[in-house]
Amino acid sequence: MINTTDIQTEDIPDHLVAHFTSRTGHNSADLIEGETGAWEIIIGLEVHAQVMSDSKLFSGAPTGFGSKPNTHVSLVDAAMPGMLPVLNEMAIRQAVRTGLGLEAQINLRSIFDRKNYFYPDLPQGYQISQFSDPIVGEGRVSVDMKDGESFEVGVVRIHLEQDAGKSIHDRIPDQTCIDLNRSGVALMEIVSKPDIRSGAEAAAYFSKLRSILRYLGTCDGNLEEGSLRADVNVSVRRPGEDLGIRCEIKNVNSIRFVREAVDYEARRQIEILEEGGKIDQQTRLFDPDRGETRSMRSKEEAHDYRYFPDPDLLPVVIDEAFIAEIKASLPELPDIKAARFVSEFGLSEYDAGVLVAERETAEFFEAVVDAGGTKRDPKIAANWISGDFFRRLNADDLEIVDSPVSGAQLGGLIDLIADGTISGKIAKDVFDEMFDSGKEANAIVEEKGLKQISDAGEISAVIDQIIEGNPEQADQYRQGNTKVAGWFTGQAMKATQGKANPQMVNQLLQEKLGS
Amino acid sequence: MALDTDTVKRIARLARIHVDEADLGLLADELNNILVWVEQLDEVNTDGVEPMTSVVEMIQRLRVDVVTDGDIRNRVLANAPLSADGFFVVPKVIE
Questions:
Q1: A471, A407: one domain
Q2: Are A160 and A135 in contact (CB under 8 A)?
Q3: Rg from Cα positions in chain B
């Protein structure tokens, strides 16, 4: 991990980063009104994504999370003298795959450089990274906002680099413990253009990027375990003027924190500028407990990484056939899938967007709709998934892949509602029962005798009994107090344990009490 | 290009090498001599020549993504001046 206490930033000099934004115009809602007029926030993200691979970038040690300290370490990762790095093909493959997923330029020749700095969890004394010639060049991410607005964020580059180890400062007093399990794990650094204009947009971009990486299978996107983290660059300016001086907020590890960090930092900068002050270009930390950013300890030394090509590694050269092979294996990505859900299933763009955000959800939806040759109602399927299904998953703290109810099983339940076997209300109980037992919907309905009563004679008899037993309420109804209608319906449902067909109950009630 | 003693001091610090104040002048002279020697390369016209990043005309060989190493904590920690509970232990690096 790049340490939060290591304030050396400025990874890439200005001549290599396109520090200009191609985004013109702005959503006026995103401007911040200060004491002295409107301000525009300019944001760019550097996202570190851990590459999904079994072994490390330059060694054969494993990458798994949560193991005992220093057990996933080879002598290469510990930087013992004489050890040499050997490049993992999977890291190259995953970086190219990510580049293709972001519609980016893939560079056939790239170079690994040494980025020199001292920190106890960086045993080599340098990080192997890519500086002048990264493996992936310019690309783009299209981001949709909740209000239906969408915008594009330019990607400047993606380069591969080693993760550092982990420093633990609170385990032993006056000492720091070092665990090198992460040392040498492959990371992709995805650098965006400063095309983002609000905290909400920054969070939406980060979330979209995570979704694409998970579709591609190149990063697991696990924020708690640090597989994905963002360095957020924030500056403010008067609309249309030159870019202001930026501050970098390091290592933000949640989508919500990205938004909160930007919102706080923008307000802080505006306050300083409006009081006639100047922004110091600095590295800051976001403190989620206090919801604020604060300056990290500064060092007297200026940033100086003294990059140079790593003499232990040769230039990486790939060919078009290698790229074509990876391209052929790309999955349907969220934007294309969402468009298909709209055209094929007639879903709203919003519903489609919710369903495709996670690949597993989209696959589940398609399984629910697929009734073997015919299609179930997509809107009903979408409602069940975003309603009761998600509610139960959240309540039981389960991921969709661990759901005890499969897509086909939920489809079976929807069939029972569609053909009138059970009411929508009973279906909710059946669903919970399915979730608990893993049984099929029709088995539960059979077992518990939950079939909807649609027999007019049977329902009629029940209603007659209620009217007879409650002459007072019946009179009120006849005198035009329609409020008691609901009461009658409730009594009829109660008498049938909720199994009476509600439409038929209402219809018969009207026939018997009306006029 | 000539290095002054302040730059030499900074280079030493970046490399975590302790240099006595008294030696700075001498080191500056020696480093400047090296730079002058290297600057002879400026005589060669390199217009249109790709910067060389490796001295051998080969490309990087790649390794298959298989776990072949790790689980050697005792060897990894063998040379550590201080270790505890499987961690390297160093003087505290934040205040």
A1: no
A2: yes
A3: 22
What tens digit of pLDDT does each residue of A138-152 get? 999 999 988 888 999
Q: How far apart are CA A374 and CA A152, in angstroms?
A: 37
User: Three-state SS across A444-463?
Assistant: HHHHHCCCCECCHHHHHHHH
Choice among A263-272, A447-456, B1-10, B64-73 with the minimum mean pLDDT: A447-456
Query: Does a structural domain hold residue B51?
Result: no
Name the pTM for this structure. 0.85
Name the B residues in 25-64 with CB < 8 Å from any A CB.
Answer: 53-54, 56, 58-64
Two structure tokens written together for A304: 């100086």
Contacts of A422 (CB under 8 A, 6+ apart): A416, A430, A445, A450, A451, A452
Inter-chain contact B62–A88, Cβ cutoff 8 Å?
A: yes
CA–CA separation, B86 vs B77, rounded Å?
8
Cβ A160 vs Cβ A119: under 8 Å? no
The residues that bridge with A38 in the sheet, in sequence order, are A33
Please say if the pLDDT value at position A351 is more than 60.
yes
Instruction: Among A5, A304, A317, select the one facing B94 at the smallest CB separation.
Output: A5
Last residue of a domain, one of A411, A430, A448: A448
Residues A319 and A338 reside in one and the same domain: no
Range of the domain at A484: 456-513
User: Which of the four pLDDT bands, split at 50, 70 and 90, describes residue A298?
Assistant: low
pLDDT (tens digit per residue) in A384-405: 999 999 999 999 999 999 999 9
Contact: B87, A59; criterion CB under 8 Å:
no
Residue A456 neighbours by CB distance under 10 Å? 12
> Going by C-beta distance under 8 Å and a sequence separation of 6 or more, which residues neighbour residue B22?
none
Q: How confident is the model at residue A34 (pLDDT cuts 50, 70, 90)?
A: confident
Distances (CA, A) of A438 to A42, A308, A444: 50, 59, 10
Nearest Cα residue in chain A from B82: A177
Q: In Å, how far is B24's CA from the nearest CA of chain A?
A: 18
State the smallest CA–CA distance between residue A302 and chain B in angstroms.
Answer: 10
How close A63 comes to chain B (CA, Å)?
Answer: 9
Are residues A492 and A434 located together in one domain of the fold? no
The residues pairing with A47 across neighbouring beta strands, listed in sequence order, are A190, A230
In a domain, A16, yes or no: no
Task: Answer yes or no: do B76 and A180 touch at CB < 8 A.
Answer: yes
Q: Is A180 in Cβ contact with B86 (below 8 Å)?
A: no
A492 exposure class (CB count in 10 Å sphere: 0-12, 13-18, 19+): buried
Query: Is the same domain home to A197 and A293?
Result: yes
Complex-level ipTM: 0.91
Report yes or no: B76 at the A interface, CB cutoff 8 Å. yes
Does B65 sit within 8 Å of A70, measured CB to CB? no
Q: Supply A222's token pair.
A: 């696990």
Longest Cα–Cα distance of chain A, Å, equals 98
> Which range of residues forms the domain containing residue B9?
5-43
